[in-house]
Sequence to fold (200 residues):
Amino acid sequence: MSHRLSAAAALLLLLAACTGQPVKPPADANWQQHSARLRELTHWSAEGKFALRTPDQSESASLRWYQTGVITRLQLSGPLGAAATTLYSNGRTLEIRRGEELSTWDLTDTRALQRETGWDLPLQALPHWIKGLPAPDIDIQDIQMGPDSARIAILKQDNWEIRYEAYAQFNDITLPTRLHIQRDDTTVRLIIRNWQISGD
Fold:
């Protein structure tokens, strides 16, 4: 698989267990109420762009993200290649289609993607992080709230640092519009122009 295709895959791959002592989420009532709404938000779509940077390469693309329960579907377009790239995951497998080329990985093999692409980035966390919510089943290493006690400013899980640089209101719920995600020399920037909230 080419590095350009693996760069597309890297946006979705959020696996691995966290080490260190867990930090409890804040007990503030505003955060408790807001995070409960975020957990109930399981059907949504988002449009924007992302940029991925490592010591070896820099990639960017426009994205359309569709989330339906545990089903994730991403449509990527732009400098990643002439052919549109679609990523699909049901939480157990990941399919990447670029033009007529289709690749499939078994996500129960946590080292498969690193072997095939050279990327060591996590999967199930990003659908939670993008909403402004810690990922379940991964210890929270640090969590810092912003001036509004209902919104996270900085989150650390699995040695990743997620900085929430901007939020906006969509359908009476506040959601992130600018995120900076980093671990070691790997950096992902997400800019969300629009969220669409669907009923379950």
About this structure: DSSP finds four helices and eleven strands in the chain.
